[in-house]
Amino acid sequence: MTAIESTNAHVHDLGMPGGPDVTTIAGAIDASVAANGPKQTALKAKDLKTDQEVRWCPGCGDYVILNAVQSFLPSLGIAREDMVIISGIGCSSRFPYYMNTYGMHSIHGRAPAIATGLAASRPDLSVWVVTGDGDALSIGGNHLIHTLRRNVNLTILLFNNRIYGLTKGQYSPTSEVGKVTKSTPMGSLDHPFNPVSLALGADATFVGRAMDSDRKGLTDVLRQAAEHQGTSLVEIYQNCNIFNDGAFELLKDPNTGPMWTIPLVHGEPLVFGPGGASCVVRDDFGGLRIAETNQVDAAQIVVHDAHREDPSYAFALSRLSSQDLRYTPMGVFRKVAKPSYDRMMTDQLEDAAAQQPADLDALLAGGDSWTVSA
Amino acid sequence: MTGTNPGISSDAHGVAPGMDPAVDSPVHSSAPGGLVKSVVELDRVVIRLAGDSGDGMQLTGGRFTSETASFGNDLSTLPNFPAEIRAPTGTLPGVSSFQLHFADHDIMTPGDAPDVLVVMNPAALKANLMDLPGGGLLIADSDEFTARNLAKVGYDSNPLEDGSLDKWQLVAVPLTSMTTDALADSGLGKKEAERSKNMFTLGLLSWMYHRPTEGTVRFLERQFRRKPQIAAANIAAFRAGFNYGETTEAFAVSYEVKPAPMAPGKYRHISGNQALAYGIIAAGQRSGLPVFLGAYPITPASDILHELSKHKSFGVRTFQAEDEIAGIGAALGASFGGALGVTTTSGPGVALKAETIGLAVMTELPLLIIDVQRGGPSTGLPTKTEQSDLLQALYGRNGEAPVPVIAPRSPGDCFDATLEAARIALTYRTPVILLSDGYLANGAEPWSIPGASELPDLRTEFATEPNGEDGEFLPYLRDPETLARAWAVPGTAGLQHRIGGLEKADKTGNISYDPENHDFMTRTRQAKVDGIAASIPATEVDDPDGDARVAVIGWGSTYGPIGAACRRIRASGRSIAQVHLRHLNPLPADLGEILARYDRVICPEMNLGQLAMVLRAKYLVDVHSHTQVRGLPFRAAELAAVFQDVIDGTTGTPATADHTDTTILDVPAQTGAAL
To answer: Between chains, do B278 and A374 touch, taking CB under 8 Å as contact?
Structure first.
């Protein structure tokens, strides 16, 4: 695969001393990567399955997402040994065990940090983070926003079921105000995060949203996310049929779904609802609002532009929806090109090596040495 | 001013009776008085520079150290500064000091007490005077002893004039105004010119101790190459200070401390943090792995991040993370990818990293965790030294999570200890904690520069082929000797595997809740770390007389003060054995047998007895724990007194009639008596 060959060439060119005693830096990694001949990139979904029994609750939305990912990944043309999935803690974070790639099921909230170190030091890999609403937005909120602002080359799949499942049903940072759970018998007092708004506030270069049960929509967003250079955040609405069943029913129901879902297609006017009855127009304060299509001029209807540099538009889009999921945009909110962190880091190493070749003896001697003679 | 011959002793040149020449106080030869400039030879000097945080004392001390190192003296330094970047000017909390001990022989500590104290203002005087033995030389910037500055620190009258400093050799010098006078034509404003007074002072001291000056001139040119006017002013002030020493009547004597005999070779001076950073780079080069540092700024470890970030040409990636947890997380992620992952921090950061260290224990990946210890608990004393993270390093994690722990014993040793930590991490696939401390980090000493090709070979092998009988890859199949698991890096075809924090099934690494497996894996992880002891060289016992009945055992930065105290004990005719541990987990295999040989074992620590507790638990030895947590290194004289008490209590009598208590404890007093 040419992408990998070229990145490895970058790693090679660090100007390491090649003396008999010193292995070229990254030489050992390169040797491992090259050890078993040409990369096998023609994969089928079954090539990505492992021998481990999948242990989510029957009916969990995670199964659907796993199937969608396994079906879609082979189309990227990446060898499975070049894919790494890093997860945190929670139901969704069991994901790596079911994927025949490299993977690490790490600790609560820290997957973006661990993935950052891997992606920054191995730009040849396709690194994925699988996380949940509690993992990414509560205990790991800090890592998430900083990873997004740095734009490390990662794809983050945030499974949002608006509940803590693995700990058996406490409210999460995306649960609606007033939610009655085991830890909030009189209703939750917390105002929830909108993960898309949060990511856009951190200047994320790619932000998308998809529904677990919408195979086509999910695959489309995943493909764009995987192809994006930099950090991609995909919020996946995922049903927890045990502790928060039906959380997204408003959007899934064939009758109500079209009424409240705003499909985002780059270059297309934001018209939705049965018969295209509703649309998105600009409001008087620089934001966006919902209007009835037959009440406005066609020219007033906003044409979706995911490539706008200024994240304000995408942010305004994300604010159209409320806690009860009415007017939820689905698709790619923002997709802008910006140099990725790992690329820039590699460039700095190459520049440094070009300016001053690595010489350990010279480094250790420094500028102010003296000699004691025998 | 109290005299024209400050610092001159009327004593004969030579070693006082009963003194070990290696540890004695400065010996001042007689010199002619009056205006004739004479040169007096000393075998060692301890100078302390003290001023306001903004006065540039650390820089001045650093330059004096460089001059002294390049001259060929042995030396040891103790920078001591507040955590506040700039406390209010002229106040006690804002006082910053730098102590340098240099000698014509091998020395082990920055000195218990200064022979010469330079104070740039009344606050510096008040904060440091109690450490200056009577008769010591005191140089003060008289310009700064204004009514306002005196009032700030509660002086009712000017101590430079009221006779209260009569027991010291006081030289009041208008350092500030002489600096501004010297820079009258520099084009700088008064305020700006005043800032060069530290260089004037350095010039004066350079004259007084015959230091080479070219290095400082070069340094100033380099430092201010974009501000030639400032460079010129500082150089002019430096030269003016030097010339002032040569011409003034205030100083009739200058001192010479001859170079120390050192093994032939090439030397430089190096601080602990610098040596540690170089150790990391060298470990990357010698292992053939790219280095990835994930770190969050924290005192006193940040300089390692700064240093490593300058050396990207060695393939070193430095990542300033959003927090301590991300720092170690990213390092572990990089290790998973085949890099040498490193994270640097201090005690509070180790607390935050604990969960990830546990993950590294479970995933059995190499990782270096550098803890530059400082005073604790909580934020504690960020700029002061302590050894109180030992138990945190050994045990501060949930579950049975054994981690090898290594401690360097001197600034230069930070280099070798880092290579040793990397060896263990890579060989045994384990996180390793390296316990440096603030004293080692900022202290400096001459360092024999090693040749890169002579450094340990740290090459490690990644798995590239399936290792299972059925052609599968078993990530937790172990090397029978080291118990290290196979390390396969992403990108290696056919070896895809998943690791994580859930308990691993033996060999396959799959999730396992099986009771027997958990018991087995817990014991195996422990056995792997215990087994490292087989690769540790035999413990060195320093007992030159060979008949010691008392042993002193230490770890980390107390090596110097303990060693100096042992020399004092031996100079008094007593015997004592010194054991200094580099490996704190696992402990050396021969340690129990060694400790059992002695009637008493003393363990001095800058904590409340953490190693002593471990030794008692592990070896059932009744360790005599001696502890101090002042944020400063031990004083050799104090330790010697403790050792002597234990020895005399054990043997029943003092060693010889000639060598009484005062022999060991007289060093500060001797200085006074000599003057």
So the answer is: no
How far apart are alpha carbons B243 and B255 in whole angstroms?
16
Taking alpha carbons only, the member of B556, B307, B298 closest to residue B411 is: B556
Q: How far apart are CA A48 and CA A97, in angstroms?
A: 11
Tokens of B659: 């060598």
- Contact of B470 with chain A, judged by CB distance below 8 Å, is answered with no
For residue B50, list its beta bridge partners: B97, B119
User: Contact B207/B217 with Cβ under 8 angstroms?
Assistant: no
User: Could you say which of A28, A352, A358 has the minimum Cβ distance to residue B338?
Assistant: A28
pLDDT digits (tens, 9 = 90+) for A259-286: 999 999 999 999 999 999 999 999 999 8
pLDDT tens for residues B220-256? Answer: 999 999 999 999 999 999 999 999 999 998 898 999 9
Residues of A with Cβ-Cβ distance to B486 under 8 angstroms: none
What's the gap in Å between the CA of A90 and the closest CA on chain B?
12
- Classify burial at B166, counting beta carbons within 10 Å of its beta carbon; exposed 0-12, middle 13-18, buried 19 or more: exposed
Neighbouring-strand partners of residue A269: A303
Alpha-carbon A21 to chain mean position: 42
Q: Which residues contact B331 (CB under 8 A, 6 or more apart)?
A: A117, B292, B293, B294, B341, B342, B343, B367, B368
Chain A residues with beta carbon closer than 8 angstroms to that of B317 = 120-121, 345, 349
Please identify which residue in the block is written with the tokens 């987990």: B585
Going by C-alpha positions, the residue among A259, A243, A18, A292 that lies closest to residue A134 is A243
Strands, E, within B374-439: which ranges?
Answer: 405-406, 431-437
Both tokens of residue A132? Answer: 């949940």
A241 in B contact zone (CB under 8 Å): no
Place of tokens 């780059």: A266
Check CB contact of B474 with chain A, cutoff 8 Å: no
Whole-prediction pTM value? 0.90
Nearest residue of A to residue B463, measured between CA atoms: A32
- CA A102 from chain centre, in angstroms, equals 17
ipTM of the complex: 0.93
